[in-house]
């Protein structure tokens, strides 16, 4: 009987120890279930956030493509404008060179004309004995000089 009592006590201690372990396991199990539920809700929130970020990323990619297309179109437009301005610059430069050449030729022509006129006036003054004729020629020469200077200053 003593042996059975000892066995009974031994079994009761084992049972108490097993019940204690079982309670501890139930607590751990409950904590794991709670942690799993918490992780599920966290995962759902993160998944929802990832979907929103994916949508936003898609919209941003579309906007970037549109903006790049606009920038490319503007760059092409600016290149065309630059080419047009360069062509206009070249044309204006050539036109300026032609006008300068024309003006230089006109200046040389007028200078030669003035030299010849001075030569004529000097020759008339030296050889002509009629003072009135010399004065008339000098007056005509002065009028012609004023006329030439007037067209040179106002004609350009």
Instruction: Please report the total strand number as a whole number.
Output: 0
Rg from Cα: 56 Å
Biggest β-sheet, characterized? none
Q: Summarize the helix and strand pattern as letters.
A: HH
Mean pLDDT: 92
Beta-strand proportion? under 5%
Q: What's the overall geometry?
A: rod-shaped
Structure overview:
The protein contains two helices and no strands. The chain has 156 residues and is mostly helical. The longest helix is centred in the middle third of the chain and has 126 residues. The chain is rod-shaped.
Draw up the topology in text.
Blueprint: H1 2-127, H2 131-155
Helix pairs in contact: 1-2
Q: What key phrases describe this protein's structure?
A:
single chain; 156 residues; mainly alpha
What is the structure about, briefly put?
The chain contains 2 helices and no strands. The chain has 156 residues and is mostly helical. Helix 1 runs antiparallel to helix 2 (131-155).
């Amino acid at each position: 009987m003593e042996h059975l009592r000892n066995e009974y006590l031994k079994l009761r201690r084992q049972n108490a120890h097993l019940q204690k372990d079982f309670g501890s396991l139930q607590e751990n199990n409950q904590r794991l279930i709670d942690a799993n539920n918490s992780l599920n809700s966290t995962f759902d929130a993160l998944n929802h956030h990832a979907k929103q970020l994916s949508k936003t990323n898609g919209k941003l990619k579309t906007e970037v493509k549109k903006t790049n297309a606009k920038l490319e179109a503007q760059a092409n437009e600016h290149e065309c404008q630059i080419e047009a301005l360069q062509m206009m610059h070249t044309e204006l430069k050539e036109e300026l060179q032609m006008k300068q050449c024309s003006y230089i030729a006109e200046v040389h022509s007028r200078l030669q004309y003035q030299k010849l006129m001075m030569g004529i006036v000097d020759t008339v003054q030296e050889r002509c004995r009629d003072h009135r004729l010399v004065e008339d020629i000098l007056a005509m020469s002065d009028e012609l000089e004023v006329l030439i200077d007037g067209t040179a200053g106002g004609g350009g």
